[in-house]
Amino acid sequence: MEPTLSPRRAELLADTMRRFVRRGANAHIAKLLAKTRPEDVALQFRGLTTTEQLSVFRILESEYPESAGEVLSQLEPALRTGLLEQLRPRQIAGLLENMPVDDAVEVIESLPADLHREVLELVDREELEEVQVHLAYADDSAGRIMDSEFLALPDEITVGEAIAAIQGSKHTENVFYLYVVNRDDQLVGVTSLRQLLLNPPGLPLADIMSRSIIKVHTDTDQEEVARLASRYDLLAIPVTDGANRLMGIVTVDDIIDVVKEEATEDFMKMVGTSEDELLYQDRSWKTASIRLPWILINLGGLIGAGLLVKHFQVSLKEALFLLTFVPVIMGMGGNIGSQTSTIAVRGLATGRIALGSGQAGRFLWQQLKVGVVLGVACAALAAVGAVLLEGVFKYSTAPVSPGAYAGVVGVSLFLAIVVASINGAFVPLAFQRLGIDPAVAAGPLVTTSNDISGIIIYFGIASLLIEFLVR
What's the pLDDT score for residue 172? Predict the structure, then answer.
């Protein structure tokens, strides 16, 4: 197969495949598939219609069944779902059998609820035991994503025997590290190919292995697995059960998938939607229903802010000129809060901010100081704007005191920004403490609460100083 394609070659491949598909040149499609890597084949499905995708996949399944499973695992969620919906249960079972277990589980887990249930019934019916075992582990755990095909060496063999075992093994694709087990399959050490090559053949393996092992349990959250791999620069992490038996390994490709998946999930939640939208991107009603709950929450918050404006409007009916800076107060508070909450969510996700270690307190203090600096700068500019509007351009028809107006605008904007900074940092930390995904707090919730607090601050200060505002 060709190496990874350049953008230009990828474009040419896409054009060629579309042309062959529309001509019905199946023999040419088969030859093209034989020369193309599965990852690049999956990319070409974007430019094909659903019917054309099915035609290409059937050729792939017939001519290159092992590659078909790999292409399926590389497809975008929406394309994969659309393709699987057109296949018969027996075909899906055959595809899952030809895929690595961890990839098969990933495909099943990425399906929408209705198709997910159908495939699970199929797995039970076809007795795909290894897939069943993986699915028995908790969602988003190391057990779900681990590769159960790995090479483990007995601790009583010599270096020479270990090299011979590696040469005769079929599980050498992921030999990043060599894990050593005792007679009970318990993980007791780890070594490397380099260590084997640098030591005498007659030396016992137990003498060169390291007993300090970075490992995870089958129930360890996949985010923690990715965090450990990043912290210690590992290409693979062993997975053990409660008795310390080696059950599998999580390799670097799965770790990268976890990082991408978790980042996508966080970003989706931060804008008030979910990763399910990727599965239903061609279904407008379904996509709208996914977004609607958070939109309604945001709408409710904004209606509340509007009611506050109406309430203050009654008591400040001689100072309607104050409405000029309402968008400024709300917009700046929302922007600052969103920035801070995004930093908080990513800090919690990557482990840079850990609760109970003093880091959370330092983060809050840092964001407070940042908010003060930003507040002073923005408040000064807004105050100058208020003076120009009312003192120079006579923007309002009411008899307004420019100095008092500038003071109200400046102080309100300063406080709104400081409160938004604290709110944006505190709410994700509080959600994390309560066991709720902090990414949920970084979307409409923080924005809406900052809008409301900004309105209360602005009109509250104006109410206190109304006698100085209107001359």
Answer: 64
Helical axes 7-23 vs 26-34, angle rounded to 10°? 150
Amino acid at the residue 345: V
As a whole number of angstroms, the distance between CA 450 and CA 444 comes to 10
Q: Dump pLDDT digits (tens) for 363-400.
A: 889 999 999 999 999 999 988 888 887 665 555 555 66
| Cα 429 from chain centroid (whole Å) | 18
Neighbours of 408 (CB within 10 A): 26
By 3-state DSSP, what share of the chain in percent is helix, strand and coil, each rounded to 5?
70, 5, 25
Phi–psi pair at 180, nearest 5 degrees: -110, 130
Sheet with 152-154: strands ordered across: 152-154, 178-181, 187-191
Q: Give the pLDDT of residue 168.
A: 81
Longest CA span, the chain: 98
- Model-level pTM greater than 0.70? no
Cross-strand partners of 153: 180
Question: Is there a contact between 43 and 9 (Cβ–Cβ < 8 Å)?
Answer: no
Give, in degrees to the nearest 5, the angle at Cα 30 between 27 and 34.
Answer: 145
Token reading at 309: 């404006």
- Terminal-residue alpha carbon distance, the chain: 82
Task: Give the residue ranges of the chain where pLDDT is below 50.
Answer: 1-2
Of residues 170, 156, 244, the one with CA closest to residue 203: 156
Question: What is the reported pLDDT for 288?
Answer: 67
Give the integer Cα–Cα distance in Å for 111 and 328.
Answer: 43
